[in-house]
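#onboarding

Welcome to the new folks! Below is a worked example of what a typical request in this channel looks like: someone posts a single protein sequence, and someone else replies with the predicted structure as tokens. Don't worry about understanding the tokens yet, we'll cover that in week two.

Example request:
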Amino acid sequence: MQAQWERLRLWAERRLPALTEHRRREVLPIELHRRRIYIMPTGFGLAFTLLLLVMLVGSLNYSNNAALLLTCLLGAATSISMLVAFRSLNGLRIRGVRGGHATAGEPIDVTFDFEAKHLRQALRLDIAQLVHAFDVEGRADVTVSLPTEYRGWLSVPRLRIWTTWPMGLFRAWSWVNPQYAVLVWPRPEISGPGPTLPFEDNRRQRLHFGEDLASLRDYRNGDSIRHVAWKASARHENLLVKDYEQPVAQQEWRLDWRHLQGLDHEARIARLARWLGEALAQGRQWSLWLPNEVIGIGNGPSHYTRCMSALALLP
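Example response:
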């Protein structure tokens, strides 16, 4: 029965595109109303209607008032269920859409912000061959995971909101085509060499004065008397001084597109994406030079997001 329903829906979309789908992108917020909500009986609803017709004919033929009353009550319940299914969607509003972050090949989370004045139960959201069930009371967030393949902008596909509440006799649905896209980051390369550091960084580590004792060294002219280690000096011929100089924790990385001339366009992007992930994991500071943008030195998740987004938007 489900396969027959899908064939019927596809036929209706081909023959009546203006009635069954919205081909144009819609600006948020989007509100469902009676002109865009469609309703049809389900397979169970058709069988139940046929049963009511048989009961009606039998009760009239045998003049059975009790059976006729039962048939009328069930028919009224059927009509009410159709109205309830329609009202479950009528007035439902999509206030906005929010996208997460993901690299190409990984699913990306997209959150839909629904709003309704009254409780809406047993709603379904179909998107990208996935079905999500949810209820709305006031406001509700529904998060779906969309598959990704390439970096760049990914438009949110057309989605269908439907319900068979409360008795499963009727299916009410509406198509929504929001004008929204999420940015997919480039896929980092699996392994490779690290970035080339400046010559001074490779030759020596710069020192700075810290608070913790690093080592003991011989006394130099100009050293403070307060830093002399008297107990240790008593066991040696020369005075020893407490050294508080420590190497700088991490040097910044200068990630430059021009230093990757031996790689093709996408390979450069993949290597820079891997370097950005390593810099973030190691707590380093980094800068990024791209053909169309130069991003200064920074660190942390927000700086990483900015750099990965810039890579994703490269032509």
